[in-house]
């Protein structure tokens, strides 16, 4: 019976991971993948009533609550930002998992716990590191109104799921960056062509002109190019998406 149950969990995770992988490769944007991650966690990690992702910008130490399955998750993230402590922040910063079984007896994160109990119905939580890179990091956070909602098996399932989710998010971001890079290259090419034709100069001279405009205005070359193209062809503003 236990073996069958374990097999069922592994099959569920495998199917969920496949869905995340497919969504990240099928043109889904990053926001859609983030929402798929939290929706999948609520559905597949036993004990989860609510889920969300907390993103942290390392240098500025700014945080952002995204893809929350319920407003209570955003409230909990806001509390952590206000008091400067909490399991979601720690999971991201310390690269580890935090399970809080009973908020009414929990001794860790006293400021967060006091506000969470005063402002929400949440009684237990489970937080995983989602990813970490040079500039930012994130945590996947699961919550329940019940005490002791998350078993050891749920923690193990969640950890495996968070790993697959991180891979799906990485693929989606890489795809988004690649698409953005291609769009920038195209618009720079258009701007260079306009400059070459208008001033009767070659490609290198046109790019040097763009580079100087970029430096003088402290504006990325792609943005300078886009402004030139949009000014010359106003109808391009809509198609450029900017």
Structural write-up:
The protein has helices spanning 2-25, 30-44, 71-83, 87-94, 110-119, 152-199, 203-217, 221-232, 236-240, and strands spanning 50-57, 62-66, 98-100, 124-132, 136-144. Helices cover 62% and strands 14% of the residues. The N and C termini lie far apart (56 Å). Among the domains are: 48-150, Transcription factor LuxR-like, autoinducer-binding domain (Beta-Lactamase); 178-240, Winged helix-like DNA-binding domain superfamily/Winged helix DNA-binding domain (Arc Repressor Mutant, subunit A, Orthogonal Bundle), CATH 1.10.10. The protein is α+β, with helices and mostly antiparallel strands. The longest helix is centred in the C-terminal third of the chain and has 48 residues, at 152-199. Strand 4 (124-132) and strand 5 (136-144) form a beta hairpin.
Average the pLDDT over all residues and give the rounded result: 82
Major beta-sheet overview: 5 strands, antiparallel
Record field, number of beta strands: 5
| SS summary, helix count | 9
